[in-house]
C-alpha cells in the first residue's frame, strides 16, 4: 500500500488560471470543452488524499461534468492522432533517408530548447503539433461540426501536468482559422483547486465516461504520460504499418526504464529502427552534438523535458520531500502502464474513433487537412532576448 499524500507535504499554490476558468464556466454564452493529458488521471487523486498513483479517469470525467463543462474530451485521443501522423512521417523519412534522425515534438520545453540551442536542426523535428494542440484544433473544427456548435463560441480548456504548455498554447502558430486552438491551460493542481472550490466530493464520485468521439483513446495514447511512451506507441503502430503483421508483444521493455538516455534497435520486419529515448534536457546535448556532426546512428529520438516524462511535470501535485517525490513518480508510472494494459484497444491505428476521424474528416495521415490543422513550423530563438524567447511582448 503506497502512502497517501496530505496537504502539508505540498508546496504552496497560486491561483493561476483558476479565476479565468471559473469566469468562463459561469458564462452561458460559451460552449465549454475540456481535455486532460494522460498524466492527470494518475495524479489528481493525490490532491484528495488518495494513495499515490491512484488511477481515476472515471472520477476525473465525472468531476469535469459537475464543473459544467459541455464536453469532456481527452488529450489521449490527440496522442493517438499524433501516432498516425508522426508514425507516417517517420516511415517516409526512413524510406527516403531525409532529415534523419527525426525528433519528437510533443514536449514544449524540448521544442523551445531546440529553437534556442540548435536552430539549424529544426527540420529534424517532427512537424506534428503536440497532442494538446491537435485536440484543440480538432475541437474547433471536427468537434464543432459533430456538436453543431459555432467554433467561435467554443472555450477550450486543457488540463496539463506541465508549466510549459501555457507558453505552447500562446504560440502564434497555434491558431486554427483565426481562433486560438486552446484558450487556456490549467495544471493538475489548478484542476484540483476548481474541484475543491466547487465543493465536489471527488473521492466518492461514481465513474463516468469521456464524451465521444474526441474522448475515445487506446492504451498507446495513454502511455504518452511516461518517458518512452511516445516511442513505444509509435513502434506498436510502425511495426504493423511496415510489416502488415500483428506485433507479437505489446509491452516494449527495451524503451521503458529509468535512465536519462536509453537506446535500442527495434526490428520492424527487415527494417532495423535505431531509437533513443531522452528524459531530461541535460541528456540531449550529446545527441544534438552527434546530429550536428553527422554521426548520429539513430532514426528516431524521443525527447521529454522532465525526468520521468509528464508524470513528473511541474504542474503535477508537488511533493516537498525528494523521497516521496520519487515514490509518487514510480506509482504514477506503474499506473499509466496498468491503464494501458487494461484497455481493449492498445494501438493507435486500431482506435475506432481514430479510424472514423480519418474516414469522415481528415482523409489520410499527412493529407492536406492534416497539414492545415495538425502540423506546424518551428523557428530560431537563438538571437532573441529571454522575454522574446518566451513570447513576452517588450515595450
Ligand atoms: Fe511538460 Fe515535462 Fe511533459 Fe515536457 S515532459 S510536456 S515539460 S510535463
UniProtKB/TrEMBL annotation:
Disulfide bond listed as a keyword: no
Signal peptide, first to last residue: none
Keyword Protein transport among record annotations: no
Coiled coil location: none
Keywords (A to Z) from UniProt: Iron, Iron-sulfur, Metal-binding
Name the record gives this protein: Iron hydrogenase
Organism: Paenibacillus helianthi
Whole sequence portion shown: 78 to 472 of 472
Amino acid at each position: 500500500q503506497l502512502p497517501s499524500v496530505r496537504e502539508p507535504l505540498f508546496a504552496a499554490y497560486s491561483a493561476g488560471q483558476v479565476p479565468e476558468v471559473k469566469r468562463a464556466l459561469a458564462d452561458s454564452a460559451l460552449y465549454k470543452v475540456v481535455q486532460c493529458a494522460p498524466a492527470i488521471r494518475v495524479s489528481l487523486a493525490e490532491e484528495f488524499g488518495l494513495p499515490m498513483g491512484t488511477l481515476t479517469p472515471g472520477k476525473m470525467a465525472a468531476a469535469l461534468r459537475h464543473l459544467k463543462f459541455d464536453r469532456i474530451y481527452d488529450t489521449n485521443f490527440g496522442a493517438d492522432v499524433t501516432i498516425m501522423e508522426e508514425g507516417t512521417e517517420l516511415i517516409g523519412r526512413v524510406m527516403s533517408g531525409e532529415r534523419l534522425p527525426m525528433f519528437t515534438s510533443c514536449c514544449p520545453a524540448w521544442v523551445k530548447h531546440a529553437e534556442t540551442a540548435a536552430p539549424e536542426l529544426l527540420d529534424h523535428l517532427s512537424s506534428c503539433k503536440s497532442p494538446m494542440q491537435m485536440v484543440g484544433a480538432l475541437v474547433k473544427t471536427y468537434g464543432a461540426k459533430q456538436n453543431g456548435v459555432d467554433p467561435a463560441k467554443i472555450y477550450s480548456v486543457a488540463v496539463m501536468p506541465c508549466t510549459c504548455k501555457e507558453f505552447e498554447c500562446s504560440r502564434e502558430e497555434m491558431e486554427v482559422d483565426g481562433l486560438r486552438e486552446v484558450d487556456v491551460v490549467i495544471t493538475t493542481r489548478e484542476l484540483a483547486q476548481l474541484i475543491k472550490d466547487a465543493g465536489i466530493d471527488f473521492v466518492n464520485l461514481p465513474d463516468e465516461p469521456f464524451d465521444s468521439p474526441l474522448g475515445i483513446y487506446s492504451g498507446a495514447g495513454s502511455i504518452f504520460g511516461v518517458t518512452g511512451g511516445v516511442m513505444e506507441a509509435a513502434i506498436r503502430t510502425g511495426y504493423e504499418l511496415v510489416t502488415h503483421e500483428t506485433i507479437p508483444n505489446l509491452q516494449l521493455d527495451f524503451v521503458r526504464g529509468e535512465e536519462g538516455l536509453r537506446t535500442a534497435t527495434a526490428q520492424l520486419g527487415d527494417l532495423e529502427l535505431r531509437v533513443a529515448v531522452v528524459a531530461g534536457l541535460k541528456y540531449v546535448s550529446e545527441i544534438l552534438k552527434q546530429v550536428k556532426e553527422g554521426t548520429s546512428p539513430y532514426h528516431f529520438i524521443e525527447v521529454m523535458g522532465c525526468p520521468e516524462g509528464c508524470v513528473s511535470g511541474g504542474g503535477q501535485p508537488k511533493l516537498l520531500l525528494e523521497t516521496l517525490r520519487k515514490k509518487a513518480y514510480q506509482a504514477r508510472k506503474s499506473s499509466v502502464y496498468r491503464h494501458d494494459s487494461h484497455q481493449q484497444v492498445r494501438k493507435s491505428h486500431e482506435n475506432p474513433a481514430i479510424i472514423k476521424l480519418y474516414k469522415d474528416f481528415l482523409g489520410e495521415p499527412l493529407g492536406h487537412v492534416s497539414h492545415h490543422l495538425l502540423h506546424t513550423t518551428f523557428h530560431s530563438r537563438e538571437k532573441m532576448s529571454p522575454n522574446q524567447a518566451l513570447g513576452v511582448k517588450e515595450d
